[in-house]
Amino acid sequence: MIAGLWQKVSRRLARVHEHRRMVNATRQPGELAGRLARTQVILFVCTGNIIRSAFAAELLRSRSRGRADVQIRSAGLDATTDGPAHPTAVQCAQRFGVDLSSHRTHRLDWSDIEGADVLLAMEIDHVVEIHRRFPQYRHKVYLFGCLNQDAQDVADPVDAPKDVFEACFERIDYGVQRIVEMLPRASRPSVPTAEAG
Description:
- Helix content is 46%, strand content 10%.
- Mean pLDDT is 90; it is low at 190-197.
- The chain has helices at residues 2-27, 30-38, 52-63, 87-93, 110-115, 124-133, 162-182; strands at residues 41-46, 71-76, 118-121, 141-143.
- The chain has a single domain, classed as Rossmann fold, CATH 3.40.50.
- Helix 1 (2-27) packs across helix 6 (124-133) and helix 4 (87-93) crosses helix 7.
- The protein is α/β, with parallel strands linked by helices.
């Protein structure tokens, strides 16, 4: 009983600490912007990798053409392996020009964390859990809401009606647009000019 109580208190303290860190990242956006400007691998994280992180990754892929060659991935803390996206997510994503019909779920593992330069988690509880599982990589993890300048969760619409999915995707769309603005433009190979003769 005491161990369980201590676990709850520790988790609550960790949430407060991580939320404070995310608020600071929102107030000093140069930290996250600088990391995104140098990134080669962005990883979106949610719970099941069936809605939010899946949509964010595919949306960023479609919007970041002409920007630096960045690998974009997604994973879920408690995802099953190789499952489909949520059917309502597939339907709602079409409005944004995103096709989730071929998405396959992926469970977050150590190699994902190690290989990513920036992790964008949808909820503060995800940030806390990633830190608990992989404390040495805490510096890479940010709350997606920092991009929306409010450091708030992108709530899971899993059992909600379609309009809640759409509102969730609009919030993700805004954050993804901010990422696109922060990514460097792809360098173009120089074209040799003809010498005057």
